[in-house]
Specification:
The chain is α+β, with helices and mostly antiparallel strands. The protein contains 19 helices and 24 strands. Helix 11 packs across helix 12 and helix 14 packs across helix 16. It is globular and about 65 Å long. The N and C termini lie far apart (56 Å).
Amino acid sequence: MTLLGIDIGTSGTKTLLCDTGGRVLATATAEHAISSPEPGWSEQNPLDWWNAVCKATKAVLTKAKVKPVDVSGIGLSGQMHGSVFLDGQSTKPLRPAILWNDQRTGEQCIEIERAAGGRAALIELVANPALTGFTAPKIIWVRRHEPRVFDRTRIVLLPKDYIRLLMTGEYATEVSDASGTLLLDVANRMWSTTLMSKLKLDVSLMPRLHESHEITGELTPAAARALGLRPGTPVVAGAGDQAAGAIGNGIVSKGIVSATIGTSGVMFAHADKPTRDPLGRVHTMCHAVPGKWCVFGCMLSAGGSLQWLRNTLGQEEVARAKKLKVDPYDLLITAAEAASPGGEGLFFLPYLTGERCPHPDPNARGGWIGITARTTRPMLIRAVLEGITFGMRDALEIMREMRIDVTQVRASGGGARSAFWRRLQADIYNKPVITTNAAEGPAYGAALLAGVGTGVWNSVEEACKATIRQTAVIKPNTKRAAAYGKHYAVYRQLYDDLKIRFAEIAKLV
């Protein structure tokens, strides 16, 4: 028997098949496009997700040579905070989905905090401040700017839960993804009727809640035909991509933190109880482990900064990589490795799409600071990697302030594939950096949750213990860690020094 994990990402959907021992048999991906009809807007057609899910599911079955009858359960994961507006009768969305990185809802965030009685009161209610990426501000924005759409809306679903609807006909979600709507009473793992009442939103707008391992429905005959699977296959609740990725990396006990560098960058810690940051700099949400919580910080342009560097200034590496048949990122990182640590006082601010943690500021801007006549191209590249990693450390420092135990950091995503970048992380975090045998992220975590829901393992913790093993440990270099500590102190101050200028720049655009 096999387990299918599906992750609806921002740029594409990934499917993964593993056996009941947790061994990955095959993966497949299918892309979907993003549209930006206005500056700062980010939208997708939810039906593109479904087409990608169907394509990638059929592809992974073919690659793994697995028969439909051999798939015993399906787990779902996906990009968090996105909003799909439905009329409750048709599965056709009323408008394009508004995504996690959409920045249009600044006024609505202010409105929500005011209705809640202030930021501190809001954090007490739902454990988080109002941020432009969250779902609730999107709902309020549609009510204000698209009243005809809002009047027809009867249910709002998150991305993975829209796919669940098309698979099973069920309106359902689970607590980890629901935490990112800003409408969940995170401490009590239920919808916050108090906040929804203050916002004049009916609780019926939100789907029923589950824990992440619970079965939420079965594949309908029509969905099974579209996917190439067996009708009646159980579909478990799954998790938002951050919690699912944490499950896939074994972050199910205190002391273990994951550092995942993709387009965004996330520092994620397990918590046995809901621990709030009173300043709202990091997020407190329900974990995909029943009765457990998590604290994580998300910077918006982690790998996205390196991607920008490749696309904008990396033509030389792209051309050479094509000739050598290697990844251009490998050549960029090799160039960075040749530069000295700290670049003689060179810093890179990775705020290319605004920032979220620890600076919830859509006006924040990126750039190099400290360029001199001695600055070389490798130094510029290394500064980008260092700036991204400093941004990740921001969340780690807040966790330390919150007295969250951190004994090791497990690296995943693009930041884990390079030995140099893993060493850089160990030195900048001043913590051992671990890699594991599980490198497939949220799709793998979703598959493990499917295994728990269908009885392969008795608990999420048991699933992780049975399947995930450490493969390497990099300890920080004492001398470099001390030097980077001094550099980080300067980096941490630069945003505050420039915050007013960022707002002035935004007014000029």
